[in-house]
Every structure is written in structure tokens, then in C-alpha cells.
């Protein structure tokens, strides 16, 4: 992957954004300056989390929320802390940051700029 998925400055604190890469749905959230990437797949039913495009957070902006049954997840770990999949976790996506660009490490894409 020669171009970053996005640049760090493009995602403000308590914002989220969804992406499709090689048919894999993922999303990014930023909280307290730290970016986290996860697969867009709720561990409860295996479906997408968001209620509107790019909207993965609850009203407080503090927790990731599944729109279907309201499960809540910690942005820093992906752990479900409330809802039908409590104790399960979102699947994290490893990534590297180079010159402010976020490069997800997804099989078939490589791990950074070529
Ligand atoms: S599908 Fe996400 S909480 Fe049920």
C-alpha cells in the first residue's frame, strides 16, 4: 500500500471513520490522541457496527457502540463492557504510522509504503 489509509490529523479526537480495504470492513477511532483500528464486525452477530456512515461512537464519544443491540466497547482495547457480547472483543487491526500516515497491516496490502 503506497498511500496511507488516512493521515492522523484527519481524524479528530472522539471521531470515527469506516473504510473498506480488499473487501474487509474496518474502522478507525481516535480517543485522547490515540488512534485505534478494528474490524467492523460486532462479536455478537458478526455484522457491521455503525448506525450511520462513519458513526461508530456513542453519544458521549467515549465508547464504540453497536447500533443493532447497543453493545458498548472500549476504544483502547475493543473489549465489550456492556450488551449481549459483554466480555468479547472487537478484532484489532495492526498499523504503522509513517510521516503521519496510517498504514494498516492487512494481509495482501503489505505493512507500509513500498
Ligand atoms: S449485533 Fe452488535 S450487539 Fe447485537
From TrEMBL:
InterPro entries: Rieske_2Fe-2S, Rieske_2Fe-2S_sf. It comes from Cellvibrio polysaccharolyticus. Coiled coil: none annotated. Residues 3-104 form the Rieske domain. Keywords: 2Fe-2S, Iron, Iron-sulfur, Metal-binding. One of its GO terms (molecular function) is 2 iron, 2 sulfur cluster binding. Pfam families: Rieske. It comes from the Bacteria. This is Rieske (2Fe-2S) protein.
Amino acid at each position: 500500500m503506497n498511500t496511507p489509509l488516512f493521515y492522523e490529523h484527519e481524524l479528530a479526537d472522539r471521531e470515527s471513520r469506516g473504510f473498506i480495504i480488499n473487501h474487509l470492513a474496518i474502522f478507525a477511532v481516535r480517543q485522547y490522541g490515540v488512534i485505534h483500528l478494528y474490524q467492523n464486525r460486532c462479536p455478537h452477530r458478526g455484522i457491521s457496527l455503525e448506525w450511520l456512515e462513519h458513526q461508530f461512537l456513542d453519544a458521549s464519544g467515549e465508547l464504540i457502540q453497536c447500533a443493532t443491540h447497543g453493545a458498548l466497547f472500549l476504544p483502547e482495547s475493543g473489549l465489550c463492557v456492556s450488551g449481549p457480547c459483554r466480555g468479547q472483543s472487537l478484532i484489532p487491526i495492526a498499523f504503522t504510522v509513517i510521516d503521519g500516515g496510517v498504514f494498516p497491516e492487512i494481509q495482501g496490502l503489505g505493512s507500509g509504503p513500498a
